[in-house]
Amino acid sequence: MKQRALIVALAGLTMTASTAAMADVVVKLGFAGPLTGPVSHLGKDEQYGAQLALDDANAKGVVLGGQKVRFELMPEDDQADPRTATTVAQRLVDAGVKGVVGHVTSGAAIPASRIYEQAGVPSITPSATSPKLTQQKFKTTYRVIANDMQQGAAMARFATEALKAKRIAVIDDRTAYGQGLADALVDNLKRLGVTPVGREFTNDKATDFSAILTRLKAAKPDAIFYGGMDAQGAPLLRQMKQLGIDAKYLGGDGVCTTEMIKLAGPAINADVFCTQAGIPMDKMPAGKSFNERFLKRFSTPVQLYAPYSYDAASALIEAMKLADSADPARYLPLLQKVSFKGVTGTVAFDASGDIREGGVALYQHQSGKWLFRP
Length: 374
Known about the structure:
The chain is α/β, with parallel strands linked by helices. The chain is 45% helix and 19% strand.
């Protein structure tokens, strides 16, 4: 009886070992962005985009080093705050994530990038557009969207050539993103021989813009550009109308959102324009099907950056497949060789970590929607 019990026990151990060998290896990827606060809708949008990429990879099955792996997303809330972002970055590193999708804002991405560089963990941002992010020349820092210099150049040409604006005022929220975008616009305007009639500053928590708008009203601008996010961009637009400022309203991708339309209410009209890094979703190679699957999976429409978040997560996975390993030390060098057709277009990086084929699109508000202007 003892011998039989021993045989049964050994068989059980063998089955347990076999089951363990067959079990999927879990590979954790981090996501970092504002999941609470005024721009949490953008953070959740990107979180869902990354999650959909992992869902798709898991459904197809990925084998690394001869073992099937299952990807799990570890989301962290950086509140779009630089200091919180570094804490979040360290938390993700300590948790052993093999790569990070994020951060959402430039102000958070820039300080967090140093943490990832020191740890050797690759991070790919879907939406942080400040040129300063990749100018640091960190080996672990990548971006799947066009940067602010490209947006600034596009808006400067549009404002002066299409809108015939000559008296352009500029406001920014003093964040890395907002100020970077405004600086890019000003630099490009000067190249076109246009000097702004006013330059004002606010912050990304402000709600009252009456003082700076009153000063700008005296300069009689025919266009006002705002560098910042929709949470401040919308009340700024409302207060422009309240003060009787009839200038065209210009912004970057931070105000090019469905939330901007909701928050601005009746103040938003056909005199509101914005640039967006990348191309319209309906012009993306896989944009239509992505939008349908996203809506079905999360019961909410794409806000803005979800397709880029999907491609950022996919790029990390593609590099792992090239390296046949989820070890950051092994797959990081392969990110330079990644090239695939993503939702947004061809995903491939230059030597600095920027996307090779980043485009810029321009939109105008009409009848409750952002309409692409070819």
